[in-house]
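Box 3.1 A note on notation
Throughout this textbook, protein chains are presented in two layers. The first layer is the amino acid sequence; the second is a token string describing backbone geometry. Keep the layers aligned when reading.
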Amino acid sequence: MSREVLLSRIESFSAAHRLYNPSLTEAENWDLFGKCSWPNGHGHNYKVEVRVKGKVDDTSGMVMNLTDLKPLIQAVLDQVDHRCLDKDVPYFSDKPSTAENIAIFFWGEIVGKLPAGVSLSKIKVWETEKNVAAYKG
């Protein structure tokens, strides 16, 4: 009998960003985002957890081989690692690069690329040790 299991992979990346909404004035951005809206931005050492779910294969004993998941995650990391999210990643050109939006970005880049029978369960992003966002699609 095959049972559904959650499987996670955690990776890290470093990136700079500025929390800023171009449709707001500088004063409104400051009121909303505070020091995180400084014009020169700031950086974080992020962690991201990609969680998938599926039935355990009777032959392999796995939901999916992590060696197949790692390159899917790496393809997204290559877009964000050591980048200025707002300037270097087109996805963030019209939305603030919050941890919430980073989680949604990772989801969109991975969701359609998983093997049959495996689905994306959650993307979790740690901006700091205390600030975490999770997205479940």
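The first helix runs from residue 26 to 33. Helices lie at 26-33, 66-80, 85-88, 99-110.
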